[in-house]
Amino acid sequence: MTASRIALIFDLDGTLIDSAPDLHLATNLVLRDEGLPEITFEQTRSFIGKGASNLISRVMAAVGLGDDPDDHARLLSKFMAHYEGEPANTVLYPGVADALARLEAAAHPMGLCTNKPDAPTRIALRHFGLDRFMRTVASGDTLPQRKPDPAPLQHVARALGASRALYIGDSEVDAETARRAGLPFALYTEGYRKTPVSELYHTYVFDHFDQLPDIVARHGASVEA
Q1: Which 3 state secondary structure label does DSSP give 104?
Q2: What's the burial of 71, exposed, middle or buried (CB within 10 Å: 0-12/13-18/19+)?
Q3: Catalytic residue among 11, 18, 22, 174
Q4: Of 4, 73, 221, 223, which sees the most CB atoms within 10 A?
């Protein structure tokens, strides 16, 4: 890999795809089936980022269910049964497909690092035609560790053979993962972040994917200097 070819590692939910509508729907289908109060879209959105198990834990707390492991296992199983199908309401963020095509044309190897379970991750990548861009994928159950532990991000970087890599994500979890991995981080501001940008670790900031190829080009030039 030449110095200008930067390995690009992406988060998924809140970065490449807006999956909150389908996550909200699946969650409330479970709660409805359990005879429990449903949660709001904004609550669901705020629970995204640390994987399905954590989402269910936070849902249980929100509806006053406690933290019984058997309840958690039952609700998580029901949630995954609803969520593992083709995404019905999930959408790509604007400019994603074009940006990835431009980055592929520039010969940047790309991979994915997400806390989303592997089955819905693969389904989403195929559904949106993103699988052709991603040479390697670390999902929420690829390793024992999950973000913000740096191990999954480091795993993808190694698999891409990267001497230089840039992580692209949207959330507090992504920022902390990049910081702990010692990687530069491009923060997409239109995802699920709740913390002000100024308070998050980041190297670059962008609010539309049409800006990302230029950021990558600038980063490549900076590491060559």
Answers
A1: helix
A2: middle
A3: 11
A4: 4
Say if residue 120 is in the same domain as residue 43.
no
Inter-residue contact 224 to 205 (CB < 8 Å): no
* 13 & 95 share domain: yes
Q: Is 11 a catalytic residue?
A: yes
The answer to whether 219 and 166 have CB atoms below 8 angstroms apart is yes
Nearest of 199, 165, 171, 151 to residue 19 by alpha carbon: 171
Query: In the chain, what's the furthest Cα-to-Cα distance?
Result: 61
Q: How many domains does the chain have?
A: 2
Q: Evaluate whether residue 1 is within a structural domain.
A: no
- The answer to whether 40 and 104 are in contact (CB under 8 A) is no
Q: The domain spanning residue 11 has which CATH number?
A: 3.40.50.1000
Same structural domain, 62 and 102: no
113 and 69: one domain? no
* Tens place of pLDDT per residue across the chain (225 aa): 344 689 999 999 999 999 999 999 999 999 999 999 999 999 999 999 888 999 999 999 999 999 999 999 999 999 999 998 889 999 999 999 999 999 999 999 999 999 999 999 999 999 999 999 999 999 999 999 999 999 999 999 999 997 899 999 999 999 999 999 999 999 999 999 999 999 999 999 999 999 999 999 999 998 775
Structural domain that includes position 206: 7-18+91-224
2 within a domain of the structure (yes/no)? no
Q: Which residues of 107-130 are buried (b: 16+ CB within 10 A; e: fewer)?
A: ebbbbbbbbbbeebbbbbbebbeb
